[in-house]
Design goal:
Length: about 290
């Protein structure tokens, strides 16, 4: 082969230097997408401190985070410098630091529970294909503030702004079970009187029966009704708690008998409960707050 037949790079072809730069940039982008593993490893220590209610010794903290004490100590030194972790000078125990508190407070100041719930319910509605909604406590009681219909809408005469009854709706039972009685006593007394007047054997009519019903809601951490408010319409309701363990809002799912799984742990209960748990976490709630 003569020199005239040796293939040459075309005029528009990239140079070797350009190809090297391109390869380097692609490598950098890949590193960005993959993240920084050491940060993720160190974060396990912060997760443990967040879940633990007391300050921890190094050995216990390292064990809970799944790493040896020497490795954990190196991360903790950096976290101490940043104020993410604090150490008791007497006992040597570790706790979350002042900067961790500031981050948490900043998050809580910016979070909007109803906005987060609206976003979460879009995915939930598509997952379970049931009508879903959000209720908050208003001046007149549990009030529907958001509603999303399924592909087979429940023929329920509910609309935004509707106030749900305390005893005959899953939503009402959630607020009755978890709100302070100072907010609900008068309304509950009236609801009990109405139940007695209407001879509603499916509803509690005495204070003792009411407390038993509400205790059942608390045991399940959810409420359900079968055709109680509207014939052939079943419903679940789940509580969402805020950072101090108070009821922030209620998630609702309802549908027609035969198309709606009303079983505990079923196809509606489980994903709705998971959604409520995630939202409570986003609002800063820890189950330990309510158990304490």
């Amino acid at each position: 082969m003569t020199s005239s037949t040796i293939p040459t790079r075309g005029a528009g072809a990239p140079s070797d230097a350009h190809l090297a730069d391109l390869s380097e940039n692609l490598g950098a982008e890949e590193k960005l997408r993959s993240g920084i593993q050491s940060i993720e490893v160190g974060f396990r220590l912060l997760e443990v401190l967040t879940a633990e209610r007391r300050a921890m010794m190094l050995r216990d903290l390292a064990l809970a985070a799944g790493m040896n004490a020497a490795k954990a100590h190196r991360y903790l030194v950096s976290f101490l410098r940043l104020g993410v972790v604090a150490q008791d000078p007497v006992t040597g125990r570790y706790e979350l630091g002042g900067f961790a508190l500031q981050m948490g407070l900043a998050r809580l100041a910016r979070v909007d529970g109803v906005k987060l719930a609206r976003i979460a319910l879009t995915q939930l509605r598509d997952q379970i294909d049931q009508t879903v909604g959000i209720a908050v406590w208003g001046n007149q009681g549990p009030t529907v503030v958001h509603w999303m219909e399924s592909s087979h809408p429940a023929k329920a005469s509910l609309k935004l702004g509707d106030v749900m009854p305390l005893l005959s709706s899953a939503t009402g039972l959630i607020f009755s079970a978890y709100l302070p009685r100072s907010k609900t006593d008068a309304m509950l007394d009236e609801a009990l009187r109405d139940a007695r007047k209407q001879h509603r054997s499916d509803l509690p009519q005495t204070a003792e029966a009411l407390e038993a019903t509400l205790n059942e809601v608390r045991v399940h951490q959810a409420a359900r009704v079968e055709g109680m408010l509207l014939p052939t319409i079943h419903a679940f309701a789940m509580p969402v708690f805020d950072s101090v363990g108070d009821l922030a809002l209620c998630l609702i799912a309802l549908g027609h008998e035969g198309l709606f799984d009303i079983a505990w742990g079923g196809e509606v209960d489980r994903p709705l409960r998971e959604c409520a748990t995630r939202l409570s976490y986003e609002l800063g709630y820890s189950p330990q707050e309510r158990d304490a």
